[in-house]
UniProtKB/TrEMBL annotation:
Signal peptide positions on this chain: 1-31
Family: Belongs to the formate dehydrogenase gamma subunit family.
One Gene Ontology term, aspect cellular component: formate dehydrogenase complex
Name of the protein in its database record: Formate dehydrogenase subunit gamma
Cofactor(s) required, per the database record: heme
InterPro entries documented for this protein: Cyt_b561_bac/Ni-Hgenase, Di-haem_cyt_TM, FDH_cytochrome_b556_subunit, Formate_DH_gsu
Organism in which the protein naturally occurs: Halomonas campaniensis
Subcellular locations according to the entry: Cell membrane
Amino acid sequence: MDMPTAWPLWRMLALALALLLGLACAQPVLAQADPDREAATAVGGVSPDTWRQVRSGEVGPNFRDSRADSTYNLINASGESWRQLRNRWVSPFGLIAVGGMIVVIALFYVIVGRKDLSEPRTGRKLLRWPLVVRSIHWTVATLFIVLALSGLNLLYGKFVFRPLFGDAVWGAMISASKVAHNYLGPLFGILLVVLLARVLKHNWPKRHDLAWFRQGGGLVGKGHPDAGFANGGEKLWFWLLATAGLAVVASGFVLDFPNYGQSRDTMQWANIIHAVGALGLTAVALGHIYIGTIGSEGSLEGMTTGYVDETWARDHHNLWYEEVKDQAIPEEQLAAGRPAPDGGDEAASRPG
């Protein structure tokens, strides 16, 4: 073969070698452009044997969690179980509980209406809630509302606000909700314990509470059932806060402070308990708010001014009224800035 015919062959070989080198250098770029190829390069083949190893709890060197002294797999089956439980059960439960309560309250208001006083007001007032209790109550109530709204935003907001306002506004909303929830949650928990301890003496169950529930708080039958300082419904709300409420607070502390050695499983269960308890309490709280405001004439006055009219006391808490009726003072005396003497606080604090 002469030299003139050999040059084209060498050129072809050189060109083929250059193409091979170019393809080799392009592999990382192609892997980044294709997520599936990138995953295949980073993780390797995830075979059925790999998934069996993950579900069995075995820990292989290629799936070890990077945290110190961890025995978890990076691919952890319990995390998927938590996600399914949260998305398929907890989230729908929240919508049914909160949304259903709103519908029930609206229907009740339209059909039954407000519970008015049975007789005209007497103009004589009884001290029901001293200033300290009212201050703690309104602080706890305000924190509860903020935590409920921020929690609902964290759970459902992305389906409502993100399509409406876009990623930028949604990102700011979710960030604010997370900060508010994390920082106000512990304060709410502390003040809730203080409030529960302060009003515990009014909320011990009594025999007449059973009759109150049988009559549906006065909705069934004639007349209003007997009630002491706190009726059966108020006592039920108290014990829900003292049980489910404290469970929500405790699980919230676990989630808020993950640097005390909680395991991944502990955090997942704390999240489920926190969500279920908080959603249930939010639903019941809507009923509590309705009854204490527009649902019952005169109820809101007790927690705003501290005083209630004699007629309201007789209608809703007749046993307590019989104990403290001699403590009633004219409304003109309150308007003149002369509240009840110190004995009034003691009267309001009597169990009944």
